[in-house]
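Sanity check

After download, print the first record. It should look like this:
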Amino acid sequence: MIKGYCHRIDEFQIAATAQFEYVVNRFHVQPVLHFLRDEGPALGIEAHVTFTKYGRLVYSDETGESPSDIGLPTWGPTDMTAPFASGSAGYDAMVVVPCSAGSLARIAHGMSTDLVGRAADVMLKERRKLVLVLRESPYNLVHLRNMVAVTEAGALVMPASPSFYSHPEGVLGLVDTVTARILDQLDVPNELMRRWSGQLLGGSS
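Expected structure tokens:
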């Protein structure tokens, strides 16, 4: 999960809770965290990260990077002293990326069993932005009903699906198309991909 913009006085803060309960691969989340770390300060953004219990292990295994080396404030999976565990802290947005079916279900039914679930519940109760980047495929009926439930509660559900019209170069280029759309949902300016302009690049059909 990655938490997004949080407006406090004249400053934007991102409480980026990155949930790696089931990380598909390192490309889904690492670019978002690095973008927020590297570009966030210039944009007035402060990002925070939390991992689930097994997410920390999987992240290190798949990226070769320790969570402590990300360069962002990182909170334990059950540390409810994290500022974004309370609505009074004023965080405005959160992204769960990737979001497992299990996390989707817990969020849909208000089960604050860890910091990810509690932070998501805070976003919903405070009517702030919550983006869930679902990793499952295909979907069963339970998944679909849970997506409806969180959408009705105010969350936005999006798949980690790359786009091709910008002619991305290689796997990282494809990943950037997903990263760009995630950042778009947080209203974070970025130029990670060519935007659709109505002009085809691949020649006439």
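If your output differs, re-run the checksum step. Summary of this record's structure: The beta strands are 5-8, 11-14, 49-50, 74-75, 93-99, 129-134, 156-159.
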